[in-house]
Design goal:
The complex is a heterodimer of chains A (174) and B (260). Chain A contains ten helices and one strand. Chain A is an all-alpha fold. The chains are: A mainly alpha (174), B alpha/beta (260). Chains A and B meet through α1, α6 and β1 of A and β1, α1, β4, α2 and α3 of B.
C-alpha cells in the first residue's frame, strides 16, 4: 500500500471548509457578535458629539471583539479540545500548525466582519468617518487585539488549545 | 534511517514512556505483520493506551523506536501517520457537521478528493446512506462506530489502530464490527486493537500481547497462550468452570486485584 502525504493546500482547504461550516451553523453567535456592537454604536448617537466619533467607534469595536472572544471560535476551540476533536485531527498526517491556522483564519474573518460592520454603521447612522490611515490603524489594532483573545481570555481550556496544538511530550524524570 | 524493506507493518522496539516520574511503558517491544489482527490486552492503567498514543504520534516516547510501514515515526512522522488509520477510544467529530461533511473533511486530510456521490457510495456500503445528512451525535453507538471505522480506513492505510472499538455496543453491533475488522484484514491491512473483551480477543485476533504494569508479559496466539499456561496454578485458580479460557489466562497472569 502506497503511503503519500497530502498537499498542504488540500489539507487547508478541507479544514477551512469544515471550520467555516461550523461557524455558519453557529449563526446565532455570529449574528449576536455582529449586531451587539452596531446596536451600541447606534444607541450612543447622542454621545458621539460629546465623546467624539473615533471614541464611539473604538468602544463599539472593543465590545465586538469581546463578544467574538466570548461567543465565537474561542469557545469552539475549548470545546474541541475537551471532546477530543483536536486529538482526532492530530492523528491525521497534517502539521499541527495547519489545524490552528484554519481556526485562526475563521477568527480573523469574524474580526474583520465586526470591524467593518461597525465602520458601516458609524457612517450610515452617526456620520462618523475616519481618514484612510485611521481605518487601516483600527483594522490592524482590532486584528491584533482579536487574535490574542484565544490565548489571553481567562479560560484555561482555550489557552491550553493554543499551547497544546503541537504533539504532547512525555518527560523523562532524569 | 527509514527501512522500506521491513516486512512488518508495525515494529515497536524497546518503547519507554514516562509521565513525570511515573514510567507508564517499560521496554515494550512487539511487531504486527501484514494482514494480521493483533490484540493488545491489559488491565486499566497497564500502558495500552500510552503505547497506542505513541504509535499514533500523540505522545513522544522517552526512548525506543516505532516503525510504521517502514517509516520511523520519529524521523518521518507524517509518513508514519499517513500509513495509519485510527479509531480513538472516544471518537468525537465536530458536532455541527453532518456525517457527509465529516467524511469529506477526513478524506481531505488524507489527500483524497471525494465528491458527494463517492462519499454517499461509501456510506451506502455500510448501510448508512440515509444518515448522511444527520449530525454524528444523532447516530446510535453502533452507527457511530461504523462511521469511525470507515473514516479510519478511508485512505486505505497499511495499519489500522482500533482503541477499544466495541466498548458500549450491543452483541449484534459487536458481531457486525468484528466482521468488518476481519474484512479489513482480508483486504491486506494489518489491525492493532486494544480491548478488555477476552471473547473479542479470542474471536478476532491472530496474536495477542498481554501488557501489565507497562511491560509485555506474554505474546502469542490466543490458543497457544491457553495451551502454554493451562497448568499454571494462578490460571487454574482463576478458572471458574473447569475449562481454561483466555480470560482465566489473563487473570492468572495479571492478578485478580481491580485496577483504578
Amino acid at each position: 500500500m502506497e503511503t503519500f502525504i497530502p498537499k498542504t493546500s488540500t489539507v487547508l482547504n478541507s479544514l477551512l471548509r469544515a471550520d467555516f461550516t461550523t461557524q455558519w451553523r453557529n449563526r446565532r453567535s455570529v449574528v449576536l457578535t455582529l449586531v451587539v456592537p452596531v446596536i451600541i454604536l447606534i444607541s450612543w448617537k447622542g454621545l458621539v458629539k460629546t465623546l467624539g466619533g473615533p471614541f464611539a467607534l473604538s468602544n463599539s469595536i472593543t465590545i465586538g471583539l469581546v463578544a467574538t472572544g466570548l461567543m465565537g471560535y474561542t469557545n469552539a476551540i475549548a470545546r474541541d479540545r475537551d471532546k477530543g476533536i483536536f486529538q482526532r485531527l492530530r492523528v491525521a498526517p497534517v502539521a499541527p500548525w495547519s489545524i490552528m491556522a484554519s481556526r485562526i483564519f475563521v477568527q480573523l474573518v469574524m474580526i474583520i466582519s465586526v470591524t467593518t460592520a461597525v465602520f458601516i454603521a458609524g457612517v450610515e447612522y452617526d456620520g462618523i468617518t475616519l481618514s484612510p490611515a485611521g481605518y487601516a490603524c483600527t483594522y490592524f489594532t482590532a486584528i491584533m487585539g482579536g487574535l490574542v483573545s484565544p490565548a489571553s481570555r481567562p479560560c484555561a481550556e482555550a489557552r491550553g488549545n493554543v499551547h497544546r496544538s503541537g504533539a504532547g511530550r512525555a518527560k523523562d524524570p532524569k | 534511517m527509514t527501512d522500506r524493506s521491513n516486512a512488518d507493518t508495525l515494529t515497536v522496539d524497546r518503547l519507554n514512556i514516562y509521565y513525570g516520574k511515573f514510567q507508564a511503558v517499560k521496554d515494550v517491544s512487539f511487531n504486527v505483520l501484514k494482514g494480521e489482527i493483533f490484540g493488545l490486552l491489559g488491565p486499566n492503567g497497564a500502558g495500552k493506551t500510552s503505547t497506542l498514543s505513541a504509535i499514533e504520534g500523540l505522545l513522544k516516547p522517552h526512548s525506543g523506536s516505532i516503525t510504521v510501514n517502514g517509516y520511523n515515526s520519529n524521523e518521518k512522522p507524517l509518513y508514519a501517520r499517513a500509513a495509519l488509520g485510527v479509531q480513538l477510544q472516544s471518537t468525537s467529530f465536530q458536532p455541527e457537521l453532518f456525517v457527509i461533511e465529516v467524511l469529506q473533511l477526513y478524506a481531505g486530510l488524507y489527500g483524497l478528493k471525494l465528491n458527494r456521490q463517492e462519499i454517499l457510495a461509501i456510506l451506502r456500503n455500510i448501510n448508512l446512506e440515509d444518515q448522511a445528512f444527520k449530525k454524528f451525535g444523532e447516530l446510535s453507538g453502533g452507527q457511530q462506530q461504523r462511521i469511525s471505522l470507515v473514516i479510519a480506513t478511508i485512505h486505505n492505510p497499511s495499519l489500522v489502530l482500533l482503541d477499544e472499538p466495541t466498548t458500549g455496543l450491543d452483541p449484534q453491533s459487536r458481531r457486525q464490527l468484528w466482521e468488518r475488522i476481519e474484512a479489513i484484514r482480508e483486504r491486506g491491512h494489518a489491525v492493532l486493537l486494544t480491548t478488555h473483551s477476552m471473547e473479542e480477543a479470542e474471536s478476532v485476533c491472530d496474536r495477542i500481547a498481554i501488557i501489565d504494569h507497562g511491560k509485555v508479559i506474554a505474546i502469542d496466539t490466543p490458543q497457544a497462550l491457553m495451551d502454554k499456561h493451562r497448568n499454571d496454578p494462578d490460571v487454574i485458580a482463576a478458572s471458574r468452570r473447569g475449562k481454561i479460557t483466555l480470560e482465566d489466562v489473563f487473570i492468572g497472569l495479571t492478578g485478580k486485584e481491580v485496577r483504578a
